[in-house]
Amino acid sequence: MPAEQREFRRTVKIIRDGIQDVLTQRQRLSATLADHIRHYDVVRDRELDATLRQINQQLEIWMRTAGPRSTIGVELVPEKIEIEYLRERFWDPAEAAPPPPLENVSDTAPPALDFDAIRNQGGPTLTRLREALIAAAAAGGLDSVADVFAALPDDLRRPVELLGLIHLLLGARADDPDSDVQDAETLVAALTREEQVEAIRPDGTRRIFALPVLPLRTTDADDLAEGARP
């Protein structure tokens, strides 16, 4: 029959609508339950229960002597209490207790570094390097900074001393009126030429560095000595 066919076709829609209603009701119930659990305060609930019990006890005592038409005034808002200062924190003996004694770990402490070991890890020794440059420039026996570095004692051949030598030499030539031309020529030559030097690290290991060729001039002795004066 056509009517029965229509009813049969509507069965799927009725089932879907019923499922949707069930899911909607479940979501509402889950949201209500989650909100209740989230805002439920056990301490406040216990305080309210204890207060109601006390009220019932006092009401029973009052009903023993009160008549059927007896009344009692109840203030909805309690009176303001005059308190100058309300202490928020109380003295706790645990907070005043001294800290536990420190553990003695002297036996596991590393050996103390002496002054020379600390100095070897620092920057360049500019005073001794300046003296070596002045002596080399005045004597004229060494041609470049690399030659000066190679002639230094082992304790002055750290890798950082290379930077100290270049710093002192270029700083001394900065006051020379011809330094702009001379330094430009030196830089151009350094781009095309280099020489290798062997540096000695504080731990005794050696390493080869490529150093730009910086010629040493006889006039550098006066410039370096002038730069050392206060």
Q: What would the keywords be for this entry?
A:
single chain; about 230 residues; mainly alpha; two-stranded antiparallel ribbon
Task: Estimate the strand proportion.
Answer: 5-15%
Radius of gyration: 47 Å
How far the N terminus sits from the C terminus, by CA atoms, comes to 119 Å
Structural class: mainly alpha
> Which whole number gives the mean pLDDT?
80
Relative helix content: 55-70%
Main sheet makeup: 2 strands, antiparallel
Describe this structure in words.
The chain is mainly α. It has two domains: 2-60; 124-228, no CATH class. It is 56% helix and 6% strand. It has helices at 2-39, 42-63, 93-96, 115-120, 126-139, 145-151, 159-173, 179-192, 220-228; strands spanning 194-200, 206-212. Strands 1-2 form a two-stranded antiparallel ribbon. Helix 5 crosses helix 7. The longest helix has 38 residues, at 2-39.
Quick structural overview:
The protein is built from 9 helices and 2 strands; from the N terminus they run ααααααααββα.
Give the topology.
Layout: H1 2-39, H2 42-63, H3 93-96, H4 115-120, H5 126-139, H6 145-151, H7 159-173, H8 179-192, E1 194-200, E2 206-212, H9 220-228
Antiparallel strand pairs: 1-2
Helix pairs in contact: 5-7, 5-9, 7-9
